[in-house]
Amino acid sequence: MSIGPGLTMPCYARDMPTAGIVIIGDEILSGKFAEENAAFLIGELRALGVDLRRITVVPDDLEDIAATVLDCSRRFDYVFTSGGVGPTHDDITMAAIAKGFGTTIMRHPDLEARVRGYWKDKLADANLRLADVPDGAELVYGKDQIWPVVALKNVFIMPGVPTLFRRKFVDIRDRFRAEPVTAARLYVDVEEGELAPSLDAVVARYPSVKIGSYPRFSEKDFKVLVTLEGPSTDDVSGAFEMLASTIGPRVIRREEPQRVGE
Amino acid sequence: MSIGPGLTMPCYARDMPTAGIVIIGDEILSGKFAEENAAFLIGELRALGVDLRRITVVPDDLEDIAATVLDCSRRFDYVFTSGGVGPTHDDITMAAIAKGFGTTIMRHPDLEARVRGYWKDKLADANLRLADVPDGAELVYGKDQIWPVVALKNVFIMPGVPTLFRRKFVDIRDRFRAEPVTAARLYVDVEEGELAPSLDAVVARYPSVKIGSYPRFSEKDFKVLVTLEGPSTDDVSGAFEMLASTIGPRVIRREEPQRVGE
Known about the structure:
The structure is a homodimer of 262-residue chains. With 262 residues, chain A is an alpha+beta fold.
């Protein structure tokens, strides 16, 4: 797509499954905790060959969570939510997602049995909220057969506590595995302004290759990092060689095309 | 607002200015770089007394950037964008924001003069793209009188390179300074399920206080961290004492109410 004189936007082949992440938590937005779950999931999704298209951090607000999750569910193949799942007043994710999809909360009998079995005579009433899920939700079991992940359509509802989030995602991640991508990098001693025409030419010649250009001002040995990535190894290799030969001896370091996620 | 039997959602006094952050970058979503600018801005906005309500990370996609920035501009008092500002093909933030606001890109004469003065005889054509801004944009000068921040209405358009992002924000941050909040914490040796009724009571009694409950499973000396926060020191102190006296000796550690951002 042309966006101005001489400018093109990379048109990335979209045969990878797509994903969005919704982080629910006042505690992130107010800086009480550093965000860890999206940071973790970025690497996981990349290794699985899933194209992450959006991360949104929203507050503990029913309407906002409802609208944001529904929007992501319509746009992407998978949505992962983090946080707001538990027994206290600020745990409103299940109610919000139910509202977003126009359904209500129900107490799931399988989950209720698990909650009662886990706490036994120490069960507090509020713990039973862990068994409340949107009507129509599925329980997704991985290798850990004790606590499933609750999913409504393509939305996977995960806890916000980072240790639990990681454990649960790793448990079910194989179901998301898709095709790997090929990635390569060039570190060049050329300013971005001077580099732009060469990049434009490669972008035009190899539309399936996503090319990123990242100036760095605190590095001594290079000025710009150029990244290349795409589903076709041939195209990424072709773009890589075309760009490397244009820049010539001012390429400082090369990281050759290789498959990621295999 | 009631969201179910016995459940209330904190109704936070909304006299603080609000903000949203839009991070533009395939490089974040694909894991090439860790996100640093939102992480930095969270702490800055908190210290300034600005209520951060949303962070969205979007890809280098014209339509997506345009729609996301416009949406945030309508919802919040301030919007900060990071990334996609520069001379190469993937730098489409200015064009996208112009499109979102129904305007076009123009070459700003003041910026063009600065660009020409900076590069002098080493100027590459592509560098002049740094002078292209949405029609109607303002140049916001801080203490650094060389490179201003480009702003369109309430949208402040910042570079993605973390060293530049930080320097530019620090340069202009005083204009965003608002009222401080009061914050306090309790570390308690009570499970969340058991804690829930006490929290509900405090939430009902002190609606202006935002109360967060965060279970931690890897800590030895406490089970849940409870955070309290609000614009009124009296209300936060009242909520803090009410909760502390309910929990009694099972409060492991107290962090007394104090003003943040003064």
